[in-house]
Specification:
Layout: H1 3-15, H2 18-25, H3 29-43, E1 48-50, E2 55-57, H4 59-82, E3 89-95, H5 100-114, E4 118-124, H6 127-135, E5 141-145, E6 154-168, E7 178-179, E8 188-192, H7 197-208, E9 214-219, H8 222-230, E10 236-239, H9 240-244, E11 251-256, E12 262-269, H10 277-286
Helix pairs in contact: 1-2, 1-3, 1-4, 2-3, 5-10
Length: 288
């Protein structure tokens, strides 16, 4: 059994078919199939049930998946620790789309200026996917927002930020310096998709105020949400970091009166993986 065989197997499990896995790891589908067949022959057990459109992992395959992730993670940790000079290496950063373009750029520039030999790879994804990838060792750190549903990851709050009410410049609420929750009754909310934690935050705050927002449209991009509000499709709540850089005259941001809605931005790491000196320096740059 070779490490590459285990990596090939995990890629097939991740993608659910051979063609996408082969493309992901940069080898032909036939070569990948031969690698998995050799692994099954060596172990004497079928690991995958090959169906017409997908592969299904067998019980033996699930056991191997768990052990392979543990083993490859330990190998990677050993390599990282032995080569840890605090200056070189790659840091794989995961961030949710409502944080990445607003929070990361200035901090990445500061980090790269101090550590020019380091390489930082940024990957945007939903919270659930980032937590899975962090658990599996595919990313080293995730920048996300509460709530975080994981018992095995370490969560550190970086800061809290206000969620600002976003309305079109033609909306009567745009003329108010402060808006009450009662002003939003019967208003249509435009939200991100259900997989985005910002939607969870918004709905939670509305429910705390005994409001059950009517949602007519959902989008996967914050920029598209802002454009829909500009067109008068509804209102929304937007993170302050996104509001601060928005220069569109067609959109107006207002604070809500009383207890203002907010979200907590967090840094999430896997305490079971080795954290290099370079990674710890990166974590420091993320702290405000």
């Amino acid at each position: 059994m070779e490490f590459d065989q285990l990596r090939h197997f995990l890629s097939v499990v991740r993608w659910g078919n051979f063609s996408r896995a082969a493309e992901d790891i940069g080898m032909s589908q036939s070569a990948l199939s031969r690698s998995i067949l050799r692994l099954e022959e060596q172990l004497g057990r079928p690991l995958l049930n090959r169906q017409s459109r997908k592969v299904v992992v067998t019980e033996a395959g699930r056991t191997l998946e768990l052990r392979a992730r543990e083993l490859l993670g330990r190998v990677e940790d050993i390599q990282t620790e032995l080569s840890d000079d605090g200056q070189h290496g790659t840091i794989r950063v995961g961030a949710i789309p409502t944080i990445a373009p607003y929070f990361l750029p200035t901090r990445l520039r500061a980090f790269q200026s101090q550590f020019p030999s380091a390489k930082v790879v940024v990957q945007e994804d939903t919270t659930a996917n980032l937590l899975r990838r962090l658990h599996d060792g595919e990313v080293d750190v995730a920048i996300a927002a509460l709530p975080i549903e994981s018992r095995y990851l370490q969560v550190e709050t970086l800061f809290d930020e206000e969620l600002k009410l976003l309305v079109s410049h033609t909306d009567p609420l745009a003329q108010k310096e402060s808006v009450r929750w009662s002003d939003l009754e019967h208003r249509t909310f435009i939200l991100m998709g259900e997989a985005h934690c910002l939607t969870t935050n918004v709905i939670s705050f509305c429910h705390q105020k005994n409001m059950f927002p009517l949602t007519m449209e959902r989008t996967s991009q914050l920029a598209m949400l802002q454009e829909l509000v500009s067109l008068g499709h509804g209102v929304s709540l937007i993170p302050q970091m996104a509001a601060l850089i928005d220069r569109s005259p067609e959109r107006v941001y207002r604070s809500l009166a009383g207890v203002r809605p907010k979200r907590s931005v967090v840094l999430v790491t896997n305490p079971y993986r080795y954290a290099s000196r370079l990674q710890n320096s990166f974590f420091e740059k993320m702290r405000v």
